[in-house]
Amino acid sequence: MIDKKFAVVSAVYNVSRYLDDFLSSLDRQTFDHSLIEIILVDDGSTDDSLDQLNEWAAATDFAVTMLMKTNGGQASARNLGLGSVTAEWVTFADPDDTLAEDYFEAVDASLNSHANAEMVICHLVDNFEATDEVKDSHPLRHRFRGGDQLVDVDRFPEYIHLHASSAFFRTAKVNDLGLRFDERLRPTFEDGHFVQKYLLMLPKRLVSVVDSAKYFYRRRADKSSTLQTSATDPGKYTTVLEFGCLQLLEQAAPEIPLWLQYVIIYELTWTLRAEEAMYSATSSLESAVVARFHELVGRIRGYLSSEAIESFPLVKRSTTQFEALAHGYVQENWRWQSVVVDSLDEDRRLVELRYHYTGTRPREVTRFRGKPIEPLAAKTRDFTYLRRALIHERILWVPADGTVEILLDGTPVPVTFGWPKPRQFSVRPAQVQAQRGSMQKQKSKARRPKPRKRSAKFSARDSFVPSMARAAPIRRMFADAWVLMDRDVNANDNAEHLFRYLRRRRRDINAWFVVEKNSPDWSRLRNEGYKRLIPYGSTLWKALCLNARYIVSSHADAYVYSPFVLSNGERPRWKFVFLQHGVTQNNISRWLNGKNIAGMVTSTVDEFASVAGDHSPYKLSAKDVSLTGMPRHDVLAKKASSYALDERSVITVMPTWRQFLVGEAIGRGNRRLPNYGFFESEFLRRWLDVLESPELQRMAEEHEYRIMFMPHPNLEDYLPGLTLPDHVEVRSFAETNVQDVIAQSAVVVTDYSSIAFDAAIVHRPVVYYQFDRERVFGGDHLTKPGYFSYDRAGFGPVALEHDQVLEALHMTLGHGKEPAPEYMRRIERTFVTPGHACSRVTEMIEELDHPVCIGDHRPTPKAPEIQYTN
């Protein structure tokens, strides 16, 4: 006879810092402890986890079984523990999580009510360690809206479950079925695989859904859990798919239940969604792993019905996430059945048309007023997932002042104003009621007289701004203004240099410059005699913004182009021109595609093609992007030419920032809280090793050079905390003109910074030091690999280790103060000749206000291929 109701099997590995919380939550259980057995399996921990477990086992009133084994992974530890279970029900709580004190009591009550349940699932709630916030935010939380209930999963397939840690299984069924965790499945899905195999083997899949049993899942602050680190593990894209997802589908075939299809779609959707993030953790995967992923997904797709993919309701998907799985792995041409009118450029009298396709691009004929016409700009944008373009989007800009038709493969297609949506194969009562309520509201609204418009209400802080902005003197002063701005806290970038040009050459343009009044750059510009300065954040600045025609900036942060919304909803209605802070060499499409950019500056042929070209990931086209060069390069070229060879006497070390090093942002501006972990970081240690090296000092003395350290502005707040040798000069962007520094440099040492382009355009040698390349392009920094290969197209040697960077410096300095011939050839074929960027940018901005001539056409280059590290 079974004398235990529940068994907890917990696999423990190096979680000593969490064990007290977990074990205490067990001790606090209100259910009879004599009916619970605890099996703790230490999986070869190297911290003091085992000592803590033994100490607790000796003190608790639970029946505890302690097992030890060499490290083999969570699945093997759980399997060992399963062999010791005697209770009727078994669960697999993780030792870094915690349980509500009535957890087992709630489960027992549900089983008393639902005696025929074959499995129990409990309400997993997120516990964010960094903030100590407990939040019901799991994507599958909808399952618990109905409270405690018994659910037939075959009838209600949206009640999927993937966590063995928050589920209970009948021990006899597990043993009779010979079910164990698959030890090949790493780093994830061993739980999901176990749960689905259990359900597949049951004749009736009745699940007790227990909302009242709360399982607190720890979201670790250091992101060190298996789930949080899984994105860079090759097994997630190969082993998990082959022995997890594909195995389940093959076992269930040919009649694959809808709930299982939803499980697989759910897993794949998170992978596709991660690829649409600002950065990608898959960039550093080996190409063979990526190829295997797509092969396996193609096989998996063969088991999934189109209806299941289309009707999948569990998490919100982007259009292309759905289309990638529905059509990206099917070997046939597919396209939208209509072309969508997506936007209108009223000033240029252009309309944007879009449609998606896979396979061979359809033959296009665009008719305007009944005659064939070339679009002003047309491009194919690729939606790439793990290096493969699964969906293509055509973007066409055509004249708006006439009837437009489009033929694809010789057939006229409908032109619509709404994006296509997945079909719906069922309807729930709540949806019917909502639709009925919406219709009733529309009828009621039609019968009611229109209410009188009320004047907008303002907060006390905003009440003065609109009236000030509309005052005649202010409107005259700021009419059609160009607002130029670099950052809120500093200047001396492309916007400032364009502003200087406009005040010198184009006073007919109403140009104003914005920066914080307490910044050093405000004082500098004032001292130089510039009066058209407006303090960022001031009331006058808001009045300027509400009257301005353009915001022209080197930065594309929201605080620049969308800085405020008044309490009455009023906001700037300007156009945003992006001058860029540096040459775009990596893929920042996910960041830029979310912004409404009217015009964008590029400086090299490849950069222009990477953004506006066919098969690039950017939505921007030749309509929006111009190859002009950067305004600051005009000034840099003049400064650099004024330095003779013998005046280039500085070894300049200029590393860029890392997302994983900077502190949290303060408000919407560029200021950040300190991250004290910076001083213990590998980043700082590596660069200090270079700056403090006797070899670097000897090289400087041999050539009679100075050594200067000038890190990215985002790292300047840490400079006072550094102790460097006396022979190393420390400079900040706030105090020193970076162009003067580059101009007098004999060599510039950087990592991934676009400052290398500034050095190269004026023929200053460059050395790259990229010791953390895998981490930067592996998901820890806000970037993805782009078209630029440092090894094949960079302007100097690339070093990955300390000795290599010193050797590269030695060779570069030995060659002289000009780049070596190999790098000079790369420079010459890269850049637009500096000297006229300001006039070209001004002309580009002015064109944004003028209608395009019918028949004008801008050719679209082919985007260069993405250069992956592996």
TrEMBL record:
CDD domains the UniProt entry points to: Glyco_tranf_GTA_type
Annotated stretches, region: Disordered: 426-458
Cellular component GO terms held in the UniProt record: membrane
SUPFAM superfamilies in alphabetical order: Nucleotide-diphospho-sugar transferases, UDP-Glycosyltransferase/glycogen phosphorylase
Domain Glycosyltransferase 2-like: 8-174
Assigned keywords, A-Z: Glycosyltransferase, Transferase
InterPro entries associated with the record: Glycerophosphate_synth, Glyco_trans_2-like, Nucleotide-diphossugar_trans, TagF_C
MF-aspect GO terms: CDP-glycerol glycerophosphotransferase activity; glycosyltransferase activity
Ranges of compositional bias, category Basic residues: 442-456
UniProt-recorded name of the protein: CDP-glycerol glycerophosphotransferase (TagB/SpsB family)
Phylogenetic lineage: Bacteria, Bacillati, Actinomycetota, Actinomycetes, Micrococcales
